[in-house]
Amino acid sequence: xxxxxxxxxxxxxxxFEVKDMLPSSKMHVQNQVILPGGGGxxxxxxxxxxxxxxxxxxxxxxxxxHELATKLSEAPFxxxxxxxxxxxxxxxxxxxxxxxxxxxxxxxxQELDPADYFKILPLIALHQNMxxxxxSGHFGDTIPLEFLQELIEYTQKKKIKVLIDTKGIGLRNxxxxxxxxxxxxxxxFEMMVGENCPDLASLKAKxxxxxxxxxxxxxxxxxxxxxxxxxxxxxxxxxQAPTIEQxxxxxxx
Length: 253
What we know:
Largest sheet: 9 strands, mixed
Distance between the termini: 25 Å
CATH architecture of the domain at 3-10 and 37-86 and 111-183: 3-Layer(aba) Sandwich
Low-confidence stretches: none
CATH superfamily of the domain at 3-10 and 37-86 and 111-183: Ribokinase
CATH topology of the domain at 3-10 and 37-86 and 111-183: UDP-N-acetylmuramoyl-L-alanine:D-glutamate ligase
Shape: globular
Mean pLDDT: 94
Strand content: 25-35%
Number of strands: 13
């Protein structure tokens, strides 16, 4: 498989609607849909919609993990579960039909044990034709620097392009080690560089300064409805987002 996606902390995304938000009242749920969620799984799902095959690796445990695996058994992409003794989370997206407002509740993750991350490495080695490795979603605070170093060193030897979409220490460490692309949003980029960037000019300047001395090849800063900003050593390019009708806001990290 040419594209492998990894999700350390997947979710069950529970979508539903109520007629109106009324405090201290029983509100009857309508139109409930429960879907697999999490960055890596979302990437594989999007790729399948583009008729591009991928192989998703994820950690899961507990009753929610069992339900996630059941749902993924019918997914339009190949996937493999690494069993974990802690339950995954369920995130909730609630829509108030009266005013159209959407409320999102992201539950805390159950941290992986540091040794768990290394279970990824032998699975990666099985895919000799891999060209892209996508690590997307919450990495967790227990991810060992040694694991990232070993993983990225392996991909560099095999000329595999690594794409990182996460936040916090995982994003910072991956950027410092050096990968093909990191994709923070504006807030995550500001946290990574330790400085506020209130406009496009300041984002460009800070991004160019950071990438000029980094082993990482590309920074793609997501700017929401504004678009995205691509920065590498040879160019800085802004992509304006197309105008679309918004259906849902949920994303899992």
